[in-house]
Amino acid sequence: MHTCPMFDWEAAWHAALYGPGGFFARGEKPSSHFRTSPLVGPELALGLLELLSRVDAALGSPPVVDFVDVGAGGGELAFAVRSLASGSLAARLRVTAVEVGPFVDLPGVRWTSSVPSCVGLLVGHEWLDAIPCPVVTGPSADPWITRWWPSLADGEMAEVGAPRDAAWAAAVSSVRGAALAIDYGHLVSSRHFSLTGYRDGRQVPPVFDGSCDITAHVALDACAAAAGGDFVLVSQRDALGALGLSGEVSGSGWDWLESASRAGRIAELRSVRGLGSFGWLLHARGVALPDLLPVLPPWRPNPASYSGC
């Protein structure tokens, strides 16, 4: 990594991902480089459909109900939600995928490059970690660092999460219903420099030539405060359990095999040493949080789940 004090980390990061010849600008999709929850199977989409149905009921079943997937990548999650929706919800459902790169033609999915207004559920699944940030070295008088990374020691490096806070606050402000950020991250009590790269399924040094995805942990507590309002921050493990994904095995014969396969996929999504320790930051907008999720333990990130740089 470049360590020159005058190096503009945020600009280089942005160019490497979204500039001409950038990693995402040229059409690379996350599914080609690392495993995410939508790629495990249909269970994440089913959990989000259950959450959307609760949002829909809390809104009084509007004529059109939105599912907006921000940072949609190849559209896997958006398409799964569109395909698995049923009943009255399916008849009223409008699915929108938001992405800056080339769009993928998927039946029933609208594409856009900017976050639209949403009456329903907006989801940013591993979106915030792909928003470039400035990088500073301690000590730093940056206001964001002063509030959200007060333990930064001399010579230590830190990602300044202010651009992510602003992006999330803007996205939440477009919503009537609920907004959900799903990402890996850290809290003010456990900050650590985490800038890293991914290429072809492997973690690699973060180089800014467009050859790899560049990412860093999300300060979800800071994002929550920036967006404000009523919110909860819980683990993916607990949230999916509360949405009915328990992974029980039942039946016999082929039914048992399908049940066991589904249980295995749910176990991967809820693993405390992997995807289950992702944070779910859920904001209620014009609806009551208890109508969406019961009271759950607060999120505690598991540092062993992620490989920082």
TrEMBL record:
Gene3D superfamilies (alphabetical): 3.40.50.12710
Swiss-Prot/TrEMBL keywords: Methyltransferase, Transferase
InterPro entries listed in its UniProt record: NDUFAF7 (IPR003788), NDUFAF7_sf (IPR038375), SAM-dependent_MTases_sf (IPR029063)
Pfam families: Methyltransf_28
Residue ranges that the Swiss-Prot or TrEMBL entry lists as coiled coil: none
Name recorded for this polypeptide: SAM-dependent methyltransferase, MidA family
